[in-house]
C-alpha cells in the first residue's frame, strides 16, 4: 500500500478529489484493510 501511495504522490497528485480517493481506496483494499487516513492524509 505504501508503494502505491508513494507512486501516486510522486506523480504529482497531492490532494486528490473525492472520486479519485474512492478509486485509490478500492485499489489499496486489494492489499489489505484501508482506513480513510490511509488515503486522505
Written account of the structure:
One of its GO terms (molecular function) is DNA-binding transcription factor activity. Keywords: Developmental protein, DNA-binding, Homeobox, Nucleus, Transcription, Transcription regulation. With 41 residues, the protein is mainly α. The protein has one domain. It is 63% helix and 0% strand. It has 3 helices and no strands. It is globular, with a radius of gyration of 9 Å. The mean pLDDT is 85.
Secondary-structure blueprint:
Layout: H1 2-10, H2 18-29, H3 36-40
Radius of gyration: 9 Å
Count all strands and give the number: 0
Provide the helix percentage: 55-70%
Series of secondary-structure elements, N-terminal to C-terminal: HHH
- What spatial form do the alpha-carbon principal axes imply? globular
Q: What's the end-to-end separation, in Å?
A: 14 Å
Beta-strand share of residues: under 5%
Number of domain units: 1
Count of alpha/pi helices: 3
User: Which stretches are low in confidence, meaning pLDDT under 50 for 5 or more residues running?
Assistant: none
The residue-averaged pLDDT reads 85
Class per helix and strand makeup: mainly alpha
**Biggest sheet layout:** none
Core attributes:
globular, mainly alpha, 41 residues, 3 helices, single chain
Summarize the structure.
It is built from 3 helices and no strands. By secondary structure, the protein is mainly α.
